[in-house]
Specification:
The protein is mostly helical. The chain has a domain at 1-89: Serine Threonine Protein Phosphatase 5, Tetratricopeptide repeat. The protein contains 13 helices and 2 strands; from the N terminus they run ββααααααααααααα. It has helices at residues 21-38, 41-54, 59-71, 75-88, 93-105, 109-120, 128-141, 145-158, 163-175, 179-196, 202-214, 218-231, 236-243; strands at 8-10, 17-19. A two-stranded antiparallel sheet has the order 1-2. It is elongated and about 65 Å long. The protein starts with 7 loop residues before the first strand and ends with a helix.
């Protein structure tokens, strides 16, 4: 007699092997999110729905389905799936992170900051840097510059190449008229640009111009203004520069 006990066979390419339901569901979630990121929403939905069939109580699968609905513009369905995921596991960091970003887009800053903070404080979460960066952005939207600075500085300690953190910290300190720390953070940003061979955006060039102006660095002002005009003549930042703002 052969007894079959909750054994799942995954038949997708190299995943063709027997597995337990949890592992199989994780595989289908990963496949679904991969298809979603590549724009294949039909295959994405199939894989995520298969994950839910295998493990209906999987927070990861419900979170993935929420992201699918979010991509499709179905806001109510997305929120329902995010809430279901958290009902299953309210400490599931990927759900807290993606749901936090979702509600931030809905202009619900208090809830967004709560969710992003939970994800950011999980020392084992692989996207912890991004969670801190988005938490900083959330605090900016909530008009709490002190907490925003704390979040971006924490992100920086975890990733010394966080250009998002360096630029936001430059802006936050400049808004406080704290020119020295603002310039220090912008110098760090410039170092990353040089080492990583990145390119400036119109926003970063305009920020560089403002830092140079606040530092009374005429050569710096001229350099950033020239680059801004040459590379982004139609940008909002160049328009602001011409207006003298």
């Amino acid at each position: 007699m052969v007894t079959l006990s909750a054994c799942v066979t995954v038949t997708d390419s190299r995943f063709s092997k027997k597995s337990n339901p949890e592992k199989a569901a994780e595989t289908y979630v990963a496949l679904g999110l991969g298809y979603l990121s590549s724009g294949d929403v039909v295959m994405a939905r199939k894989k995520i729905e298969r994950a839910l069939e295998i493990a209906p109580d999987s927070a990861a699968a419900h979170s993935a389905m929420a992201m699918f609905w979010q991509e499709r513009g179905e806001i109510k369905l997305a929120e329902k799936e995010f809430e279901t995921a958290l009902d299953i596991d309210d400490e599931h960091s990927p759900t807290n992170y993606h749901y936090g970003r979702f509600v931030l887009q809905q202009k619900r800053e208090i809830r967004a900051c709560e969710l992003l903070s939970l994800a950011a404080n999980d020392v084992n979460y692989s996207a912890r840097v991004a969670a801190y960066e988005d938490l900083g952005i959330c605090y900016i939207a909530f008009n709490d510059s002190s907490k925003a600075i704390d979040a971006f500085e924490k992100a920086w300690t975890l990733d010394l190449y966080s250009t998002i953190s360096a630029l936001h910290l430059t802006e936050l300190y400049l808004q406080r008229n704290s020119v020295r720390p603002a310039k220090r953070w912008f110098d760090r940003f410039e170092e990353i640009v040089k080492n990583k061979k990145l390119t400036h955006s119109s926003a970063s060039l305009y920020l560089g111009y403002r830092i140079a102006k606040a530092s009374r660095d005429r050569n710096g002002q001229a350099s950033y203004a020239f680059k801004l005009k040459k590379r982004f003549p139609n940008s909002d930042e160049y328009k602001s520069f011409k207006r003298g703002k």
